[in-house]
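mind reviewing these tokens:
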Amino acid sequence: MFRDASLVAGKDLRIELRSHVTLQQVLPFAVLVLILFGIALDPDRGVLSRASAGLFWVTVLFSALLAIQRAFTVEAADGGRDALRLSGLDPAGIFLGKAAAIAAQLLAVEAVLAVGVVVMYGAEVTGVPLLVATIGAATAGLAAAGTLYGVLAAGLRVKETLLPILLLPVLSPVLIGATKAFEAALGGVAADGWPWLGLLTVFALLYLTFGTLAFGTLLEES
């Protein structure tokens, strides 16, 4: 399973490295959204600083939608999805590989956005361990849920508009938990953020487990 996951993740990441979609489209989009939030709230720097955690994760969420749609769009061309079904790869490995590739792209975007939040919004990091752990757990949850719902929507005609409708309500626990944990790590009391990190970890484990079990069936139906 893990060998197949590494093959799928390597394939997806090589496609992204050659196409530069993440670098030239997803990342500029994320930075632009962050800048627009800053312009809208700039007259009141206090509000901007207090809202930096929520604005960061809303931007990440929008970027995740683009990355997830891209991950399944590349499979639709030239019968790629049929080839994936017939490849003999473990469906659980395919799920983990695609989720890992999405997570790697999101981590790169989040690293840039974190610098942007500190520079543009004046956020002060006081709990680095909590910050890093929150990013890891939230990214894993976003990638796992996104991969699962991405393959669910892949076989539908209106997948471009249906995926956000399906995915955004599901990701609300990630948005809430990650925002609360970030607020604690950015100038708050770090101890208040660890319970929210627990919620994020449970969410990620739940979707990773369900995805490894159900991805094969969903892939056959897509």
Observations:
- The mean pLDDT is 85.
- The two ends are 21 Å apart (CA to CA).
